[in-house]
Amino acid sequence: MATFLLEVGTEELPASFVEEALQQWRDRIPAELDAAFLTPGDIHYYGTPRRLALLLTDLPVKQPDREEEAKGPPAQAAFRDGQPTKAAAGFARSKNVSVEELEIRETDKGAFVFVQHKIPGRSAAELLQEWVPQWILSLEGKRFMRWGDGELKFPRPIRWLVTLLDDQLIPVTLANGSEQCESDRLTYAHRVLHPDTITLQRAENYVMALRNAYVEVDVNCRQTQIRVAVEQAAAAVKGVARIDAALLSEVANLVEWPTAVVGKFETEFLELPPEVAIMEMESHQRYFPVLQPDDTGQLLPYFITVSNGDPQKSELIAEGNGRVIRARLSDGKFFFDADRAVALEAFIAKLEAVTFEERLGSMRAKVERIAAIATFIAAQLNLDKTARQHLQRAALLCKADLVTQMVGEFPELQGIMGEKYARHSGEPESVAVAISEHYLPRGANDQLPQTLIGQALGLADRLDTLVSIFSLGMLPTGSSDPFALRRAANAIVTVTWDANLDINLHNLLDQVVAAFVENPDLTLDSAEPLRSQLQDFFLQRVQTLLQDDLKIDYDLVNAVLGEKDPTYIQRALEDLLDVRDRAIFLQSTRQNGTLAKIYETVNRAARLAAQGTLDTTALDPAVAVDPERFQQDSERAFYAALQTLLPLTTAAQRDRNYPQLITGLENVAPVVSRFFDGPDSVLVMAEDPSIKQNRLNLLGLLRNHARVLADFGAIVKG
User: How would residue 63 be classed by pLDDT, with cut points 50, 70 and 90?
Assistant: First the structure.
């Protein structure tokens, strides 16, 4: 077994590319090694701003010799009159066997020549020499560049290459026009702390050799070092560091030997909203903010930067970084003060100059549409007069901060600044909070809006976006979703579920689409197929959320949504809470074994009932069944059981009391089994058409009662 080292040395790489490149190697290299019968004991991936590296440990030095069966030419081409042809001889020669070793075998496509031949294993060194250039040059990313006079592309110029198999140098050359990068034992350490080159004698010495020269090549180790150092630095000034995971990951790929440096700024900048100062520090400067050691989230006048320089110069580094952040915070304070000089309402007129989408008009027009949709939602939620007024006010102001100087500088603060400016302008608290909350959730795992006004406004905004973009025919395709329509629809469903909003999405879509058709400023001529496209889109999102977020089995999701069943489709969109509750309840009945007890009975009844004429909504046996036509006591017992089940099903429809319905179905199951297989069982498909239909109606009623919960035909037994 051997250890192989590959190191690609470069000019400073973009931080994002380091992790992207290592992930591409993780996705490719293990499978390639396995396919070549050179599976290593372990693979370590390393990266810094100046290098990408991997270390294969316990690597076989040679492929095993192996024997494989090869299929050759058709028998009639390989042999004529029992004698081998040139085709047979050539095939045998290519497999390094004699013609006598060939055998003819029948296949689905006729007789062919086959042979068992030996494949001698190749050395790992030989294969690695072929693979290394492919591993490097197949990496993909944004903004690749050329350098020198060659055609080679990489995010930054490649300056050195190390390829060691134990202590053996494997010669590899990357040609780039008149320049060539040839592999060597030389690697480069920290630019400042160890400017000399390092000669690597053995591959396994790599990590420690670089570590001794002030380069930590292990990304996870650097992240841990940074986290610990930043936390200690914050504690030294009696604060707590705010360590954003994405920022930590980025900073770790900006340095090779991290040093935490504490900087300071004037307390007057603490008058800024914390979100502004934090955005300045994190997004623009890659600094870690320092918070007070309590739950207030208030800032202290310090920041922590992670230096890649000489730790002895930390004081000088802190001064330089302090000058930079003071300038940034001064700009932020100027924007903040200028924006607050006028009321938030004053910015609404400027939205006329901001285009939402060329064919859909300005952001001002979008605000008007949001307000109209908010009216529909307010009616469904039965909001009182004050709440409706606040919702309309929030709708009017919800996009006003887009044209403020602060949001112009930091688009990520949209909504957040709107809330603060609304509060400063004397707007009601519920209006101010709704302006911020209507953007929530901004992404996966983000917090959700907590106020009813914020929830309703968020639904209105996303519905307008969905209907608007769908009206232009710009539906998401594959991975392409430039307007984040899937995320918008997911948010509508998620917020509705989280807040238990009594929203009829089916009717709401009808209202919004109809308003689009009636709007003279828009070009939509017909509500169809827009309405159908939106309904299908939402059903897909509900299906995905039930399966992925709530972990409901796929067949149970199909059962509550129906498989292309218009009744279930409309029901799901009319009551999103009900479809969620039914799916969760069905999952629980599967887990506790209740579903298995009634599955066969309901399914058997449903399959036979399909041959009858009873519609799928009838529930009352007194209306659908004639007791005078009963011939067996099992029919009478079935009828009586359905009468007992009726109030339970009615309650389930009214109160979503599905446990009561399942209990009723459990009680009916043995009665139905007697109807089918008991001593007084009946032949459902009787010769007398009236008796046959009467019995099919009994079964149809049972099917219909079960359909109140789900389509049992979609459930997979198991």
Answer: confident
Q: How far apart are CA 20 and CA 351, in angstroms?
A: 39
Record the tokens describing residue 170, joined without a space.
């494997």
pLDDT at 245: 92
How would you label 422-432 residue by residue, b for 16+ Cβ within 10 Å and e otherwise?
bbebebbebbb
Map residue 151 onto helix, strand or coil.
coil
Tokens of 513: 């689409």
Q: Hey, what amino acid is at 145?
A: M
**What phi, psi does 543 have (nearest 5°)?**
-60, -45
Dump pLDDT digits (tens) for 322-373: 999 999 999 999 999 999 999 999 999 999 999 988 888 899 999 999 999 9
Q: If 0-12 CB within 10 Å is exposed, 13-18 middle and 19+ buried, where does residue 551 land?
A: exposed
Neighbours of 248 (CB within 10 A): 17
Before 529, cis peptide (omega within 30)? Answer: yes
The pair of three-digit structure tokens given for residue 672, joined into one six-digit string: 């139905």
CA angle 615, 617, 618 (to 5 degrees): 80
Q: Is 528 exposed, middle or buried (0-12, 13-18, 19+ CB in 10 A)?
A: exposed
pLDDT digits (tens, 9 = 90+) for 206-248: 999 999 999 999 999 999 999 999 999 999 999 999 999 999 9
3-state DSSP: the chain helix, strand, coil percent, rounded to 5? Answer: 55, 15, 30
Digit-coded pLDDT (tens) for 405-433: 999 988 999 999 999 999 999 999 999 99
Tokens of 627: 């007791």
